[in-house]
Amino acid sequence: MEVILLERIERLGQMGDVVKVKDGFARNFLLPRKKALRANEKNLAQFETRRVDLEATNLTARTEAESVGEKMDGLYCNLTRQASEGGQLYGSVTARDVAEAATEGGFAINRGQVVLDRVIKNLGVHAIRVQLHPEISVTVNINVARSEEEAEVQKAAAERGDTDAVDAAAVLAAADAEADAEDVHVEEFFEEEALADAEAEIVEAGAEEEEVAEEAAPEAEAAEATEDDAGDDAGDDAGEDQAESEETT
Questions:
Q1: Which bin fits 17, alpha (ψ -120 to 50), beta or left (φ > 0)?
Q2: Least confident of 149-158, 176-185, 206-215
Q3: Residue 31, SS3?
Q4: pTM greater than 0.90 (yes/no)
Q5: Kindly report the CA angle at 61 between 57 and 65, in degrees rounded to 5?
Q6: At 210, phi and psi to the nearest 5?
Q7: Is the pLDDT of residue 243 over 90?
Q8: Which is nearest to 124 in space by CA: 106, 110, 144, 140?
Q9: What does the pLDDT look like over 184-211, one tens digit per residue?
């Protein structure tokens, strides 16, 4: 079937081109979506009459798409999915999933604008083309992960330019192990600090005891000397009493 294109169709032609396509493609896609008209004299004349308006409308739409595309190109959208240890998804990512993720990211698109040329059945960052206008397309990065943490690891790897598959789970496990080791190191440090403080307190207590003993020594010596003097005086008094008693006798 021959049709007149009302807009640019990728790998088919530009607005106004008369092209030959398969009947099913024309009936199921081009004609119901008003992307083309059947090629006949009446429709050719109608197109030429509307051509100026169609081109003006297309220009406005293209300008808007370019504006949105500048902001949307390179957008990262996270999709949380269950997967096996090997990263195989239990299911697949569809065009509807991509459209919903982009809409949640602030850019309203429909699944018909998502050019999903392959089946996504693995974890990772997948670059997907989105057709904003027949002449404008952008790339959206669909980040499929089991958790937000894994998504962050995968995004960081993609931004570094790592082309190999990233085992985000292994990276997170290594990070957790490193954090645990750091916690153990901190605990050991504080235990050592506590032991050192205890030893310092023992040394300080011993020094205080020695200082007290040194301060008490002179007083003890003085008390001992006083006791010795008192004993001598008592002995002298006893001797004198005995001498007087003998004289009396």
A1: beta
A2: 176-185
A3: coil
A4: no
A5: 170
A6: -60, -40
A7: no
A8: 144
A9: 555 666 677 777 777 777 777 776 666 6
Q: Which residues pair with 171 in a beta bridge?
A: none
Burial label, 1 (beta-carbon count in 10 A; 0-12, 13-18, 19+): middle
H helices present in the chain, as ranges? 23-25, 41-72, 95-104, 148-160, 168-248
- Could you give the angle at the alpha carbon of 139 between the alpha carbons of 134 and 140, nearest 5°? 120
Token duo for residue 51: 């051509």
Answer whether residue 137 shows pLDDT above 70.
yes
| Distance between CA atoms of residues 154 and 64, nearest Å | 32
pLDDT at residue 13 is higher than 80: yes
Phi-psi region of 218 (alpha: psi -120 to 50; beta: other; left: phi over 0): alpha
Q: Are 141 and 76 in contact (CB under 8 A)?
A: yes
Q: What is the residue whose two structure tokens read 């979506």? A: 33
Give the C-alpha separation, 162 to 155, whole Å: 10
Whether residue 150 is predicted with pLDDT greater than 80 in this model: the reply is yes
Length of the chain: 249
Helix (H, G, I), strand (E, B) or coil at 113: helix
Take residue 136 and report the two structure tokens written for it.
């404008």
Query: For the chain, what is the radius of gyration of the CA atoms?
Result: 48
Overall average pLDDT of the 111-132 stretch: 95
